[in-house]
Amino acid sequence: MDVEKSSLCNCVVNFLLEENYLLTAFELLHELLDDGRDDQAIRLKNFFSDSSQFPPDQISRFNSLRVADPQSLLQEKEAVEEKLAISEYELRLAQEDILKFKTELQKKAESPVTELRESNASVNNGPQYQRQKTDVSFSDLGPLKDNERRDLNCAVKEYLLIAGYRLTAMTFFEEVTDQNLDVWQNSPACVPDALRHYYYQYLSSTTEAAEEKISMLRKNESLLEKNEKLNHEKLCLVKNKDMAEGQISALNKSLESLQKDHKDKENLVQDLKQSLEHQRKELNDCRAEVTALKMHIEGSRLGRNMVATDVDHVQSLSLEKYKEEVKSLQMELEILRSNIANAPDYIVSVQAGKESVQMEEKVVVMDEEKSIIQHPVDAITRVVEEADQSLAADDNLITPKEVSEEYSVNPSNGSTALTNGESVSKQNVEPSASTILHLTREDHTAETASEKRGLQTIQILADALPKIVPYVLINHREELLPLIMCAIERHPESSTRDSLTHTLFNLIKRPDHQQRRIIMDACVSLAQNVGEMRTETELLPQCWEQINHTYEERRLLVAQSCGELAEFVRPEIRDSLILSIVQQLIEDSATVVREAAVHNLALLLPLFPNMDKYFKVEELMFQLVCDPSGVVVETTLKELVPAVIKWGHKLDHVLRVLLSHILSSAERCPPLSGVEGSVESHLRVLGERERWNVDVLLRMLLEMLPSVHQKAIEMSPFSSDPETTGTIFSTPFLELYAGGHVQLPAFEWLHVDCIPDLIELACLLPPKEDTLRNRITRFLLAVSEHYGDSYLTHILLPIFLVAIGEDALLTYFPSESHSKIEGLMPRTAVAKRLATMCILPLLLAGVLGAPSKHEQLVEYLRKLLVEGVGNQSTKCNAEIIDAVRFLCTFEVHHGMIFNILWEMVVSSNIDMKINAANLLKVIVPYIDAKVASTHILPALVTLGSDQNLSVKYASIVAFGAVAQHFKNDMVCILFPLQ
Question: Who contacts 610 (Cβ-Cβ below 8 Å, separation ≥6)?
Answer without folding.
Answer: 575
